[in-house]
Each structure stands twice: as structure tokens, then as C-alpha cells.
Amino acid sequence: MARKSRKPAVSETGMQNAAAQAKTEMKLYRTAVYARLSVEDSKNPDCDTIENQLSLVRSYVESKPYLKQTTEYIDNGVSGTRFDRPEFMRMVADMRAGEIDCIVVKDLSRLGRNYLEAGDYLEKIFPFFGVRFIAVTDGYDSINPNTAEDGLIVPLKNLINEAYAKDMSKKISTAIDIKQRQGKFIGCRAAYGYMKSPEDKNQLIVDREVSHIVVRIFECKAEGMGNGSIAKMLNDEGIASPMRYKYEKGLTKNKRYADSLWNDGTIAAMIVNPVYIGDMEQGMQKQAMHMGISRHTIQKEDRIYVAGTHEPVVSRELFDKVQKLVEERKQKVIANRGKYADVEKKENKFERILFCGDCGGRLKFYRRVDDRSGIVKVYYDYICPNSESYGEQFCRKKKIKMQDLEAAVEAALRMHLKLFLDTKEVLQSLNRTAQAKQVKTDYRRQITDTRNRLERAQSMNSNLYNDYADGLLSERDYLFAKQKYVKEAENLTQKLSELAAMQTTYEAEYAGSQDFAKIMEQYAGFEELTSDIVYALISRIVFFGEGRIEIEYAFADELKAFVELAESREEEIACMQQAV
Length: 580
Known about the structure:
Strand content: 5-15%
Oligomer: single chain
Radius of gyration: 34 Å
Largest sheet: 5 strands, mixed
Distance between the termini: 62 Å
Number of domains: 4
Number of helices: 18
Strand order of the largest sheet: 2-1-3-4-5
């Protein structure tokens, strides 16, 4: 019989392309809102604010049904010439983790004012991770760029932004340098014992409430007390540390300073600061973006030093006496440098995974050599380094001996590895029973049946288009039937995968998922704790002080599931044996 004439119809490839296009258009983007304001911008009365940026961008996102805001990232007081901004880096990390599909900013300058790096993000990094980028007021949307216009305008705007930042850098650097050479104070906070004059923020005046404590610190140091001993004395007497004092006075609102204590780092910084004899030393660190010079420390002889800029707190005689002691101590340290170079150095086995339970910072590995008794003794400790002397980060002191930490970690790992070995032995023994073999055979039968049904659904689906092309099916019936068979094939494929996974757990030598079993069996019964074992089995260790540690295991979920599987298998086999 002759074929019926074919009706004009859209090809299957065309319909697939149309469906793909519709799916793209209807995609819901997990959207991140990013706002940035530099210190320089905040001083400009005509400049935008963080609040205005967020309001504009939020309104834009809400007006677009295909954008769903998931989070916000705000860098306030951070220069756009830097791309190591805290919130920007957090956003990039979330992007790399696949949690963001789209980033929306007010304008291109919020992304950054460095022409080359901004271009890299727009042209390479965002496209590589499939992230859409929108700059609202610049009318830029990376998903639909006009190559004739945006291809020129976006780089041009980035170049203008960088030029603006360099111009601002030059003006600000010049203004700061002039003030420093005039002996004017330009810091954010006055040194402990001083305050900014209410009439002139660039002039320091003595804070009579605590200046006597500064004098006492210098006197104690001149008498030979160590920095740690002075700090302990002040803490024991309940005298508020510099940052705690500023917090109580409302000069800082950061609650982490509410209970901060004196420490040797704070004392060490104070006793060498010439501000206490009425002199101003500034320019310890400098950067010049307009000259391509990043932030760096300036040698003491090159710093800006102006004498007699304000009222002194301690006498020059007392200050010089303390400096002499500090210098003598420094020379002694220099003389001993390299003295113990041949003493064995232990490996830091927890370098990347050991964190403080209070501040979240990484604990540092310290080696301490003691030869006071005539015998060289070496001590290794893990210490949280964050304190007031580290600026914004502050944390109470905590320390744990290397051998104590290694012993605790080793004991915990041996316990977990033994649990794995015991569980594996129980599960494999159960899998060798007649009942388990019967269940395995039943899974094999179900897999064969499911595979046959999947092949039939796939065959029926492949024949549908021929019937549609021959006019045996209308477009509506074709699409309905196709959707039905595609859904059935998806469900059967999922079921086939689940059945195969379950059948595998009944194998006589089953020991868990492949990666999990390989790692656990590799290190079971290890002789000595090594960094390889630590990094293979542990993802994070948190130290809270006073010997308390918490360990996050790399395969915690897999081990828990493995133990639960053995327990449920034991109950299953027992029920089957009772039923016989």
C-alpha cells in the first residue's frame, strides 16, 4: 500500500532545539547581589552609598521573574583596585561551588577598578563557570551582549574606572604625605593613653583616665619585667586592655573586644612606640596604586618622624632606658639565630586542617628550644596566634602540646578504623548466608526484568516519530506519547541504578563504596600517624582549649551509612531465618 503524503511538520531536531531554547528562556537564576564602597568613595558627598546600591539592585532583581535572589555580598570600605576583598572572595568561592548562577551589581566599577582583572572576570572566569553577570546602570548583561557595542564599551568603562582609581590614589597619597610631614595624626584610632582632640581630629591629646597605666608599663619594663608578666599583672588587676577599653568607650562596636585581655604582643608594641614621648612616627606601611606599588612595610629609617607634635606621657629618659633593654634583647636573639639549626624539626601534621574553636583561625605550629639547664630540650606546641596585636582578629590564648594532639587524633582514628573493620567482618559474614544469597538472586531477577522494560520503552519512543511523520499520530498525540515514554524510561533507569546498587551490597566481599573502602582498608592498622593518614581521613580539627578538640572525619557519612547497613542487614537475615 502506498504511503500517505506527509504533512508539513517541524522536524524532531527543530522541536528539540525549540524546547531547549524555551528551557533556557525559562531558567531561574540563583542570583547573588554584590555591593562595594571604598573608603575614598565614602568620603565623597556625591558618591553612592551601600544602602542605595542594594536598594537599586534588589529592585532590579525583583522586577525580573527569571532572577531569584539567594544571597548578598557587601564589601564596605574596600578599594576596587583589590580583588582579594573578603566578601568578593566568598562570592567567588560560592560561585566555584556551583551555588550561584548570576551576579548583579549597580555598575561595572562595583566589580572592580582594575582594568585587567575586571576583564578577566567578565571575559573568562564568569563564562567558564556559566555565571551570568549584570551591571544595572551600565545596561550590561553577559547573556545577551551586543558585540558591536559592549565589546568596545565594557573594556572602555573598565579602563576609565581604573584611571579614576589611580587618580584618586595619587590625590589621597599626596594629601596623606603632606599631613604626615606636618606631624598630624591620620590614623583611625589613637594609641592607648591618647585620644583625638574634639576640635582637631589630626591632633592627639592625653587620655588622663588611662595615661598613668602607660607610665606604669614603661616603669615595670625598665625594672626588668617581661612582657608576658606585665600583661598577666594587668589582667589579674582587672585593668581593661586597650581594645576592651575602646569597646567600653564606644570607640569600636565589635563585640569580640568586649572580653579581650592584655597580652605580650600588646605590651611589645607599646614600649617601642615614640608616640608616648610626644613624637609622631607614621608611614610604617605604604601603597601607591597610581604607581603600581602595592601595600608594603617601610624600613624604620625611611618612615616619617616628626618630634614634639603633642604632649608626652612618659619621660624621654624612661623611654630611652626601655629602648636600651629592648635592643639588648633583640641583639641576644640575633646572636642565637641559627644556634639550634641542627636540632631536629618535627613535621606539622595538621597544617591545613587545625582551627581555633573561638575565632576560626588556623593554629600555628611553634618550636621552642630550652637550654637553660645545659641540656637542649625542644618543645612543640599548637597556638592560636590571634590577639589584639593582630588588629581586627582577637582571640583568647590557647595552646596544646604537639604530642597531646597527635595522641588524641591517633586514638580517635584507630577507634574509627576498628569500627570499620568490625562492621565489614559482620556484613560480609551475613552476606554469605543462604538468606542473603536468596535476596541477591531476587535482585538479579528484578534487574533483568527492569532492563527489559527499559528497552521496550526506549524502542516504543524511537518508533513514535516515524508514526508522527507518516501521519499516523497527530502532533498533540505524538508529544503526549513521547513524554510518557521518556518519563517511563527515566524512572526505569533510576530504578535500575537503585537495584544494581542494592545488589552490590549483598556481594560476599562488599566493604562500602569504592573510594571509602579503599581508603579505610589502606590505613587500617597503621603503625605510625602521618600527615598522609591525617589528610586522607580527616577534613577538619577544631581546638577549643583545655584539651577539648572536635574532629570532622572525611568519610563520616559513609561510615555511618555502612554501620547502619550492617545493622539493618542483621535484622533482615534474622527475620528471614525465623520465618523458615
